[in-house]
Design brief:
alpha+beta, 5-stranded antiparallel β-sheet
């Protein structure tokens, strides 16, 4: 028979274990000094792909959905212009309960010997849509037009696909950014607005594309602050209480985490050399993707453009 002392010890150990579980779960999600606490984003809707959507899976495992049916469910105004092979969806004030600016999503369909693509323009508010954001695979089958679900919903939500469970999750995320990097045109489309950006690329194919950090962060509405002692540039995310800092003397970078009580500085290990030119730092694109924890997405023009989503 187990003694009373042993029973008390076992119960006490169990209670201590239960007490520390929440702390373990929190710290097990830490990425360096940053905790990926997603409490700031709200799950708006989950689609069961097989039950809720008309869909196709392409040979390269891309999800296409019947966009007209989806738009009707979301109360969009729909226009079809057959002469231009153009389908236009207009969302006015709300989508799934979320207040939005008037948004116009235009699909221009390109049919080349049974290979279908569409150029997708996104116009939000008064910002004119000059360049297509998505160049996406699409398909017309049995009178239904199919295109990637991101083209319809990413202008409003963070779209998370889980193909293993066949679900699509939509989050209202105030710090979610969508960017398309267009080095051949010295442009970046940031949250569907076009900005000029300086890039650098050597003729050596082994050298990655470099992007001007001042230009990049200004395109996502981040102030660039210069400090003299020591000479450095600071790019701050007020939401996440952190900043990227570039030391202009030794060409290094670190992350500064801060709150009301303290600051913590963590060096950033870069795979490529940081350059200073034209009065701004230039960072290799692979390093930029790494420090932002950005996700790359593949569309039909990914050989010349880079699609990224990230939080900032």
């Amino acid at each position: 028979m187990i003694s009373t002392k042993i029973c008390i010890t076992l119960i006490a150990t169990f209670l201590i274990f239960l007490f520390f579980i929440p702390f373990f779960l929190i710290f097990s999600q830490a990425d360096g000094a940053e905790l990926h606490n997603k409490s700031y984003r709200e799950l708006i809707k989950t689609y069961d792909i097989e039950e809720d959507l008309l869909y196709l899976i392409t040979p390269n495992d891309q999800l296409l959905v019947g966009v007209r049916t989806l738009a009707e469910e979301l109360w969009a105004d729909i226009e079809w212009e057959p002469t231009q092979q153009k389908m236009v969806f207009t969302y006015n004030e709300k989508i799934l309960g979320k207040a939005i600016e008037k948004t116009i999503i235009s699909f221009f369909i390109i049919n080349e010997e049974e290979h279908w693509n569409c150029k997708v323009y996104v116009q939000q508010g008064n910002v004119e849509s000059i360049y297509p954001y998505y160049l996406a695979q699409c398909k017309l089958m049995d009178g239904i037009f199919f295109a990637p679900i991101q083209c319809m919903l990413e202008p409003f939500f963070e779209v998370v696909l889980e193909m293993d469970t066949m679900q699509v999750h939509l989050y209202d995320n105030p710090v979610f950014h969508r960017t398309k990097i267009l080095p051949s045109q010295a442009l970046i489309i940031s949250n569907y607005e076009v900005f000029e950006v300086n890039y650098k690329k050597n003729n050596n194919n082994e050298t990655p594309l470099y992007i001007g950090l001042n230009d990049f962060f200004q395109s996502i509405a981040t102030d660039v602050v210069f400090k003299l002692q020591p000479p450095r540039l600071i790019y701050t995310s007020d939401f996440h209480l952190k900043a990227f800092v570039v030391d202009l003397i030794d060409h290094s970078m670190h992350i500064l985490y801060y709150n009301e009580d303290e600051q913590k500085k963590i060096p950033i290990k870069l795979d490529y050399e940081l350059h200073i030119d034209d009065l701004q730092p230039y960072l290799a694109l692979p390093d930029l993707i790494a420090i932002l924890h950005a996700q790359k997405h593949c569309f039909e023009d990914s050989d010349i453009a880079t699609y990224l989503t990230f939080e900032w």
